[in-house]
User: Fold this.
Amino acid sequence: MKITAKVRNGFIELLVFFIGICSLLFVSNEVLRKKEGKGVDMVRSFYRLEPESIDVLVLGSSHAYYGFQPNQLWEEHGITSYVLGSPSQTMICSYYLLKEALKYQKPKVVLLEGYYFRSGEVFVFEERLRPVTDNIRTFEYKRDLIEMAFPDAGWKEKLPYYVPFLLYHSRWKEIKKYDFIQPDYYKGALVRFGESPHETPAPPSEELEEIPETAIEYFEKIQDLCRDNNIELVVFKTPITDANGDELEWYLETTGLNNSVAVYLDKQNIPFLPMQNDIDIDYAHDFNDYGHLNFTGQKKATEYLGNWLTAHYDLPSHKEDPAYRSWEKDHEDFLQFLQERRKLVGLDDSDV
Assistant:
C-alpha cells in the first residue's frame, strides 16, 4: 500500500505535536518541581557534574548537608566532593542514591552521615521522600522506592510519584528565581549563618540504643556496593545539642545510638567518626538550631573530615590540573556568594 504525501505529512505533524507536548511537559516539570534548599537542589544538581569527577561522595540527611562543605574541601585540599543529601534521608534512600550515583561517578570514598541508622523505614515523612523519587533518573530505582514506600496504594495514588508535574502543576504562583537557575557552586551543601545559642549539653549517653534490622540490612547493601566498586566507606556523625535541656531525651537517644553504631561498625571494620567531642565546637555560636550546624560549625566539621581523609587515603590535589578548572571557578563563585551573604547578614570577614 502506497503512503500518500498527505498521510505522510499528517503523520509528521502529529509527531511534531507529540514531541512539542512532551517538551512542554518536561520544561514545566523542571520549573515547577520543588527545589530543596532554595536552589541547592541536592539530587538534581548532581547530574550536572562532569562524569567521573568526584573523589568523595557524601550521603545522608540534613545533618550531612548542614555539616559538610565541598568548597572548603577543595580550597584546603584540592579534593572534589559532592553532598548527595536529602531531608530525612533514610538508609534505604541512601542505598538507592548510591546505586544511582555510581552510574555517573567513581568516588574513591563514600562519607555516610549516620543519623538515620535510627530508622528502618523507606521514609520518615512523605514529603521528604519526594526529593529522591522526583529526581532520581533510573526508572528501576524510582519504581523500587515507590513500590516499597506504598505497597498497598493503587496506581492513581502512585502516579504523581512517577509524573511529579501532577503534584506541582499549581505551584506556578510561588515560583522564584531559583526555580529557573540553580548555581553549580553549592555542590549539594547548605550555608546557614543563623546562630542558635546553646549551653554545653549534658554528657552523652552511655547506653546502647537498638539499631533497626532494616537499617543494618541496607547499610550492608551500601557496604557491598562500596566493596564491589573499590570505594572506601566511612561513617560520620555531626555534633548536636540538647537544646538547653528541652531536647534531652532526643539527645540521649541519639548519642546512645552513636554508641551502638560504634560497636557495630567496629565489628564491620568500618571507620566511624562521631565528632561530638572530637572538634572544638562552640555551642553558643556554631549551631543553626539544636540539631544542625551553621556555617561556622560546618567549617570546623569539614576541616576535621578533610584532615582525616587526607591522613588515611590517597586523595591527591587537583588544583593544578587543567581538567578541574571549573572547580576553581565554582569555588570563586562560592566565595562571591559568601561575601554577598555576609553583607546581608552583617558578618565580619572572620566569619567567611
The domain at 41-125+173-351 is CATH 3.40.50.1110 (Rossmann fold).
